[in-house]
């Protein structure tokens, strides 16, 4: 399959280890599939434990020099990488849509969002300050910040570009090296990114990319190799817990950005038009496959019917289709299996009394497409309330009081993003402080950017990505006591 790229050399099918494009030692490959068509885009090298060991050793070596390089010079390399991503943004978007399925306009947006982390951390990396602490007359107590060491990163398929840049940019900015295992569904975006990193002057070994079909093998080496000092992961809570357990033996630091179960709480006093618009974007962007996607709509009784009506009417206007077709507003889900799993959740809810307002089945566009769906008559006992749906399905729950809304919002082990629509200032504070989430969008659902600390509480994870706080995840704090003065 041809993608008609302006720069075809961005489409890579090998692993990138220690500054070289290499096949897997044993020659294994796996196919990357376009979810909209089922076509094979490319066969890509599938590496294993040995290649991972090599990449980690190369990272260790490269880091010894890189951490001594002035922050300003590291910043200039990241700036050049940023500029190259901008120069090739359309090709990167096409590659992303082909392997991931999201509509082109969303891929274009993600490429710019992803690039913004390089720009941001190129700047922030120059501002890693220490402290001199108030001490007694005969001593000075000093705190310095140092790079944590070699970092291993494991990333998901839903944001094949931005989930990588928001890890690698702060890591490289402060002097760390990184080895990355991208998701097997979407390795091509990762490989295109590292091609541009090489052109930008990122030294050999500093950033290796390890595509593989054997995630447990590569992940096992990453989490057990003593040279790796930190593991950063974005993905499911189940795999995150497994990686944390594996990291325990060598006491690695971890950053975990895991599942969510985001509530969108809409009060009677909300601006309904804004709430509907925000709810639609949050729920159906990337076909509902984001960890901060609205998972549960909690709507106060007074506006419930009006909300359902307006929301469903808008959903009926969506154009499902191949993301490379500019007319498509929404694309497929990542795999046929994902569509099947989404449908199972809908069927289970319907069996327990949920009503399908619109959608509710696999689309006649093909087995990878699920119809944008709206469900009412849903209850807290249903799987849809407890589990991350990760698909274009909106269950709309009803509540009466503010206390009830807060209790419902908190009735989950997750705590990533949450959203509240109300025009009552007191309520904004009570609810924002009362709900157990790492992020709260008030009258806004598009809350992500490079300037904010993205991350969750409870079983949604630990650590923050982006913002000035995002540097901390890649820094150690060292205390130096100068005595006998
Ligand atoms: P999803 O279900 O959305 O694919 P996963 O958590 O399974 O989420 O995947 C996120 C990332 O974790 C992917 O890169 C995947 O290959 C990787 N992964 C899955 N299982 C393991 C594992 N046992 N060890 C290391 N990485 C894994």
Describe this structure as you would to a colleague.
With 485 residues, the chain is α/β, with parallel strands linked by helices. It is built from 14 helices and 20 strands. The protein has helices at 49-66, 71-87, 89-100, 104-124, 162-174, 187-200, 215-224, 237-248, 272-284, 304-315, 336-351, 383-386, 402-410, 425-434; strands at 15-17, 20-22, 29-33, 40-45, 131-133, 140-147, 150-154, 178-181, 207-209, 228-234, 253-257, 262-266, 294-300, 355-358, 373-376, 393-399, 417-421, 439-442, 461-462, 475-482. The protein has a 7-stranded mixed sheet with strand order 14-15-16-13-12-17-18, sandwiched between helices. Residues 154-156, 181, 183-184, 215-216, 219, 235-236, 239, 242 line the site of adenosine-5'-diphosphate. Adenosine-5'-diphosphate (ADP) is lined by residues 154-156, 181, 183-184, 215-216, 219, 235-236, 239, 242.
- What is the oligomer described by this structure? single chain
Radius of gyration of CA atoms, rounded to a whole number = 23 Å
Mean of residue pLDDT? 97
| Count of helical regions | 14
Helix content: 25-40%
Record field, number of beta strands: 20
Distance between the termini: 71 Å
List the ligand species.
Answer: adenosine-5'-diphosphate
Structural class: alpha/beta
Poorly predicted runs of 5 or more residues = none
Largest sheet: 7 strands, mixed
What is the topology, as strand order, of the major beta sheet? 14-15-16-13-12-17-18
């Amino acid at each position: 399959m041809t993608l008609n790229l302006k720069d075809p050399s961005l489409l890579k099918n090998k692993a990138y280890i220690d500054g070289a494009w290499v096949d897997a030692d044993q020659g294994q490959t796996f196919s990357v599939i376009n979810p909209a068509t089922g076509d094979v885009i490319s066969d890509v090298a599938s590496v294993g434990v040995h290649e991972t060991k090599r990449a980690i050793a190369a990272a260790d070596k490269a880091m010894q020099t890189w951490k001594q390089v002035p922050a300003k010079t590291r910043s200039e390399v990241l700036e050049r990488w940023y500029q190259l991503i901008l120069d090739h943004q359309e090709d990167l978007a096409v590659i992303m849509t082909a392997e991931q399925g999201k509509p082109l306009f969303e891929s274009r947006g993600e490429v710019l969002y992803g690039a913004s982390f390089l720009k941001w951390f190129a700047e922030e990396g120059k501002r890693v300050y220490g402290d001199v602490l108030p001490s007694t007359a005969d001593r000075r107590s000093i705190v310095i910040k140092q790079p944590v060491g070699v970092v291993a990163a494991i990333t998901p398929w839903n944001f094949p570009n931005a989930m990588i840049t928001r890890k690698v940019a702060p890591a490289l900015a402060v002097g760390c090296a990184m080895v990355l295992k991208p998701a097997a569904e979407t390795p091509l975006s990762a490989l295109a990114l590292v091609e541009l990193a090489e052109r930008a002057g990122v030294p050999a070994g500093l950033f290796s990319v390890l595509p593989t079909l054997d995630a447990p093998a590569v992940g096992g080496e990453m989490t057990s190799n003593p040279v790796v000092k930190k593991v950063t992961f974005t993905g499911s809570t189940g795999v995150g817990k497994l990686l944390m357990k594996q990291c325990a033996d060598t006491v690695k630091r971890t950053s975990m950005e895991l599942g969510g179960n985001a509530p969108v709480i809409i009060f009677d006093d909300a601006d309904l038009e804004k709430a509907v618009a925000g709810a639609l974007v949050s729920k159906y962007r990337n076909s509902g496959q984001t960890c901060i996607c609205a998972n549960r709509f909690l709507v106060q009784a007074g506006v419930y019917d009006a909300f359902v009506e307006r929301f469903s009417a808008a959903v009926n206007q969506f154009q499902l289709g191949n993301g490379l077709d500019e007319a498509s507003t929404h694309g497929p889900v990542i795999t046929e299996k994902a569509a099947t799993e989404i449908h199972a959740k809908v069927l289970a809810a319907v069996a327990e009394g949920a009503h399908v307002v619109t959608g509710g089945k696999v689309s006649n566009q093909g087995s990878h497409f699920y119809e944008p769906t709206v469900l009412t008559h849903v209850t807290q006992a249903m799987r849809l309330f407890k589990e991350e749906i990760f698909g274009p399905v909106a269950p709309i729950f009803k509540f009466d009081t503010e206390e009830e809304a807060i209790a419902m919002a908190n009735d989950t082990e997750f705590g990533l993003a949450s959203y509240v629509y109300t025009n009552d200032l007191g309520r904004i504070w009570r609810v924002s402080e009362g709900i157990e989430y790492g992020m709260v969008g008030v009258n806004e659902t598009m809350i992500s950017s490079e300037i904010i600390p993205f991350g969750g509480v409870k079983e949604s994870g630990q650590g923050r990505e982006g913002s000035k706080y995002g540097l901390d995840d890649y820094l150690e704090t060292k205390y130096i006591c100068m005595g006998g003065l």
